[in-house]
Design goal:
Layout (H helix, E strand, L loop, with lengths): L9 E5 L4 H9 L4 E6 L9 E5 L11 H10 L2 E4 L10 H22 L3 E4 L19 H18 L3 E6 L1 E3 L12 H10 L5 E2 L9 E3 H14 L5 E4 L8 H14 L8 E2 L2 H12 L5 H16 L21 H18 L5 H5 L1
Parallel strand pairs: 1-2, 1-4, 2-3, 4-5, 5-6, 6-10, 7-9, 8-11
Length: 348
């Protein structure tokens, strides 16, 4: 289905302070963007912030403000979500499910199409084990599936965009908030990753934030709805071995001496590491291990994800080389931000 969109539409954007939201703002030049924010204010050229709450009736706005906004908005882009694996399940479902239902009600009132950002990992339906401790990816993924179902049942013209793990900008590496993959590769740079619970040939599917932003912006401007877009590395995603090699090469270029971790199974972690070492670890380190196990479990996929982002006008598929360069740029930015580089490297 195709909808006529103004050349300079007014867009309601949720999650504007997040990773995808921040990258998307750079791609929406020429549009009037209203950013519904709960905590962090967002402003810029033709960008205005509006304080609200997706979990409240009328998005936390009074009736007059809600109706005024609905009368002005041409397109809704929904990026806001709880993405952490250790967040309370009630809070996760409040924002990811009830929040999406509130956004759908607004889009229906505004008679505006919706671009709904989900996750490619909704395809992982076998994460039912309890061995991740405080990290529960199945709670997050369950909430995203319910949100997608709400979109499908709503009757609102919509696209569903499913990115895999999002890393920083493909050139600068900059990102609004570092993600789990940054933490894992960062631990390798610090020589704090002796074991890595992955098979060496497992594909590590990630995409740079500017690709996700280009897909969403392209869909906004095309007016096309009714599609599902998998923004993934797919067949081009590098293996775990290659990602480790890239991180080590970067570390060496920065004057660090990272050792290669040993690839092990999750079963080995459960049988040997947890019973012997977990109780002695500080709480923060136990949580980091739980988060790493949950993150690496997402990559245990028999087949590569589909990749359909190139179906969006103006977007081309990324090669393995593109993804490797983006990973290196992202981790170089991480190393600078975390003080893992020399003063001369930071100034470069």
């Amino acid at each position: 289905m195709s909808i006529t969109v103004k050349s300079a539409p007014t867009i309601l954007l949720t999650g504007a302070s997040g990773v995808v939201g921040q990258a998307l703002l750079e791609r929406l030049a020429g549009c009037d963007v209203v950013c519904l924010t709960h905590r962090k204010p967002v402003a810029g050229h033709r960008v205005t912030g509006l304080r609200g709450d997706l979990t409240l009736p009328r998005l936390g706005l009074d009736r007059a403000a809600y109706d005024d906004l609905a009368d002005r908005v041409d397109v809704v882009v929904h990026c806001a979500a709880v993405t952490g694996f250790s967040v309370d399940p009630g809070r996760t479902n409040d924002l990811n499910v009830r929040g999406t239902e509130g956004v759908l009600a607004f889009a229906r009132r505004a008679q505006a199409p919706l671009q709904h950002v989900s996750t490619a990992f909704v395809a992982r339906r076998d994460l039912t084990r309890d061995a991740y401790g405080s990290a529960r990816p199945e709670v997050y993924l369950g909430s995203k599936r319910l949100a997608e179902q709400a979109v499908a049942d709503s009757g609102v013209p919509a696209n569903v965009i499913r990115p895999s793990v999002v890393i920083g900008d493909s050139v600068t590496g900059r990102i609004a908030q570092f993600q789990g993959l940054h933490a894992i590769a960062g631990a390798l740079l610090r020589n704090a990753l002796p074991l890595l619970p992955l098979q060496p040939d497992t594909r590590i599917d990630f995409v740079p934030q500017d690709l996700v932003a280009a897909v969403v912006a392209g869909l906004v401007r095309s007016g096309t709805t009714g599609g599902e877009y998998w923004v993934t590395g797919g067949d081009a995603a590098p293996t775990a071995t290659r990602v480790v090699e890239l991180a080590r090469a970067l570390g060496e270029s920065l004057g660090l001496e990272p050792d290669l971790p040993r690839f092990v199974s999750h079963d080995m972690i459960d049988r040997l590491v947890r019973p012997v070492f977990m109780a002695a670890l500080p709480k923060a380190q136990r949580r980091r291990l739980d988060d790493m196990l949950a993150m690496t479990a997402l990559f245990h996929t028999a087949e590569p994800f589909a990749g359909t982002s190139h179906h969006v006008p103006g977007v081309r598929p990324l090669t393995t080389g593109d993804l490797e360069d983006a990973f290196t740029a992202s981790m170089r930015h991480y190393a600078r931000a975390k003080g893992l580089t020399s003063p001369s490297e930071v100034a470069a």
